[in-house]
Automatic annotation (TrEMBL):
Natural source organism: Neomoorella thermoacetica
Family: Belongs to the HypD family.
A molecular-function term among this protein's GO annotations: iron ion binding
This protein's UniProt keywords: Iron, Metal-binding
Highest taxon listed in the record's lineage: Bacteria
GO-annotated biological processes: protein maturation
Signal peptide (residue range): none
Protein name: Hydrogenase expression/formation protein HypD
Amino acid sequence: MSPLDRFCDTELSRKLMGRVAALADEVAERLGRPAVFIEVCGTHTVAISRLGLRSLLAGRVELRSGPGCPVCVTDHQEIDMMVNLARLPGVTVGTFGDMLRVPGSRSSLERERAGGADVRIFYSPLDAVAFAEANPEREVVFLGIGFETTAPVVASTLMRARLQGVKNFSIFSAHKLIPPAIRAVLSDPELKLDGLILPGHVSAITGRRAFDFIVKEYGLPSVISGFEPMDILIALHELLLQLHRGEARVANKYTRVVREEGNLDARKRIAECFEEVDVPWRGLGVIPESGLSLRETFRDFDARFKLNIEPAPPTPLYPPGCACKEILRGKLLPTECRLFSNVCTPVHPVGPCMVSSEGACAAYYRFERFS
Ligand code: SF4
């Protein structure tokens, strides 16, 4: 058995599940209600749904989703600007696949593509650079969407493009940062929460220390977790144990990947290329210093300046009846949206949480519709 196999071992998982359930019973009895946790990351949302943990722990633990699906939190305003880019003659817009179908206020990239715009899916920004080199007559704009995990890859790509002298490549940066979004979620006085499962991939870049504010400012237990079944059970056990003991700390239970200070090389690359700016998040509004904009030294690769894209007007519109806003803040479950699975499905999504494969509504639809 390889060390990693232990994290998927069925027998070990069953034993630990028994301990989690017993501890959850004790905590629920003490609280007089189920403990409420948020899993911040969309990948955790999918893993928890796939494992059926919500129904296994029903009545003892309530697991809600948070703002950690990058496609879901990309604001209408940003999508409107991406649509404007796609409408420019001679421009190819490159993006990750999930982004195509997310609606802005007037259109989506998929609709623009159907209307003749050159919108392409690239699996890596490096592929977009290669496409730009092969098509020097076009300006290739790659949409930088994602969190601390995607930004270093885009930063490295920019450095490579500059080194190779690629002049017809640029980035539309809509990168976002997770710690400010967590702060925005936790600042909501209406949110009743007992702990957080923190994103493993993001923490690999930021380091554990980046989340110390959760304890200092909000006094909440939290745990950094991996994504295998045992990882998630260990994380739940840790949160319940902290609650049971009346403690609050940021535990790192993903030590095979996450360090105290994070990935210093990746953080350096981010700092070289980007600066922190206030940006709008779908469902959360404008959050101070929660986005990454290209530094002035990279302005020749910044699509906003290179192609004179004006900021689109703010559009606080949400599709009527769509509860994505509340779901991304951990206040509602997808099944509490009245459109879930009758009007809104992955084939006919109404909101972004049903579009993205990491969206909470898509995960519930796929794995928990009948539970
Ligand atoms: Fe929005 Fe559809 Fe989710 Fe309801 S089920 S919150 S309409 S994405």
